[in-house]
Amino acid sequence: MNPILQVNQLKTSFFTSSGEVEAVRGVSFELQSGEILGIVGESGCGKSVTVKSIMNIIKPPGRVVAGEIKYKDEDLLNLSKHRIREIKGNDIAMIFQDPMTSLNPVLTIGSQLMETMKAHTKLSKSEREQRAIALLRAVQINSPELRLKQYPHEFSGGMRQRVVIAIALANDPDILIADEPTTALDVTIQDQILKLLKDLQKKQSKSVILITHDLGVVAQMCQRVLVMYGGLIVESGTREDIFYAPKHPYTVGLLNAMPKLDSKARLEAIPGSPPALVNPPKGCPFASRCQQAMKICLNHLPHFYEDHEGHKARCWLLDPQVKKMKGYEDQ
Ligand code: SF4
Ligand code: MG
């Protein structure tokens, strides 16, 4: 295994008038080179804040309060502004949910693509144009020479998201971070965009972090999965671990909420709602919604227990003593 990105004990908070909102409360994970890692959970669980912290785009009143984010050998939290801009332009690129907010309506697609290259490469104007054409072709946009001269409003929603992906690829980054890249699109288009992303990841050997609230998307796309809840990773494992042998009651709830035939799950189906993260609960953040909650869950944050190599869950049910007490076989 060869991690290209390592996040260690990341904590990000928002300092609001009602107090410190602990949006990310100590998150650690690795992104392996060439994999698609899914981060799944309801909105407000800390997924977007985690990747925005990686991209260094947390705005006040928010800030990263602790942790380490290592890209190759550099800690992204301790670099000069200049070096961070370089890395963000060349090595790590982000694809946002809504293409309309990431495209400039008054600039042509071509100038937006070439602008990204201009800021970070030494290509000549005609080389940039050639590369822009090649990028539009790579994201399967027909007649790229003509399309370069058009404005975002001349593209459909799905086409605009392809353009956003092309811009993210402009400087050939190692890592692509996609935050709900298909949420704003209808189902058929969503499927095409996901296929395109997977195809690019394979052909261009990118490492991808894919954020979604949709387990169907995870099943289709990801080799490994992090399940987030209440600003914490509550379970991590391979896709098979998560879908066939989930250990955390929250993950089980998400899976039960998935319609069997149609995979377009909305995750709100678990009764109750996630905890507020101003003064987050001392114990397990899921306790107020968990049917298996015990006394210990209310007052003590569970450890992250390893079920087997690579598969972990943050739940007291995996504690050897609790297992014994409950009469489980300790394997
Ligand atoms: Fe439920 Fe307790 Fe496990 Fe939390 S630690 S998920 S409350 S059993
Ligand atoms: Mg989000």
UniProtKB/TrEMBL annotation:
Q: Which CDD domains match?
A: ABC_NikE_OppD_transporters
Q: Where in the cell is it found?
A: Cell membrane
What is the predominant subcellular site recorded for this chain? membrane
Keyword set for this entry? ATP-binding, Cell membrane, Membrane, Nucleotide-binding, Transport
- Which positions fall inside the ABC transporter domain? 5-255
UniProt GO molecular function: ATP binding
Q: Does the keyword Cell membrane apply?
A: yes
The domain of life is Bacteria
Q: One Pfam family of this protein, by short name?
A: oligo_HPY
Cross-referenced Gene3D superfamilies:
P-loop containing nucleotide triphosphate hydrolases
User: How does the record say this protein sits in the membrane?
Assistant: Peripheral membrane protein
Q: Does the keyword Transport apply?
A: yes
What the record says about family reads: Belongs to the ABC transporter superfamily.
> What name appears for this protein in its UniProt entry?
ABC transporter ATP-binding protein
